[in-house]
Design a protein that fits this description.
70% helix, Four Helix Bundle (Hemerythrin (Met), subunit A), elongated, mainly alpha
């Protein structure tokens, strides 16, 4: 198996989040806190505005309901992974402050962080795949166009 650097995995995670960007709510206030998140620190930008997506793609109520279920089903694992990333990062930061530096322990936590990010990336891919399965081919193309337009701005 190829050894990926932490920077490579972080880049992949950022790209994964960027692919789903058209699904995020129109109003994104990164300083806001989503109180429905079980951990209380999720930015509101992580909330998917299914109704807006429904209007943009002309989704039926059944499609909206299925997409909402997909998102709800993936929220708990998403928040759990985000908490693991946060906790691991805190541990890694503490190791970077320690004297003397323990390169082996730092490397172990970097590998753990990379693994967590890979799991987060896989969850994002699964969520997008499940959502695409609900859409017609025309709606899938519209979503691709929305994403393309959104990333050009």
């Amino acid at each position: 198996m190829r050894d990926l650097s932490l920077a490579t995995v972080l880049s992949l995670a950022v790209l994964t989040v960027g692919v789903a960007r058209p699904l995020w709510a129109e109003e994104q206030d990164s300083t806001s806190v989503d109180r429905t998140c079980p951990h209380g620190y999720a930015p509101k930008a992580m909330n998917v505005n299914v109704e807006a997506l429904g209007q943009q793609l002309n989704l039926s109520q059944a499609q909206i309901d299925k997409i909402r279920t997909i998102i709800d089903d993936n929220s708990t694992p998403l928040y759990a992974l985000r908490e693991k990333i946060h906790d691991n990062y805190a541990s890694l930061s503490a190791l970077h402050q320690a004297e003397p530096l323990d390169a082996a322990a730092i490397r172990k936590l970097e590998e753990k962080q990379a693994s967590i990010l890979a799991d987060l990336t896989a969850l994002g891919s699964k969520t997008r795949t499940d959502i695409h399965a609900v859409l017609t081919p025309e709606q899938q193309e519209q979503l691709r166009q929305l994403h393309h337009t959104d990333t050009q701005e």
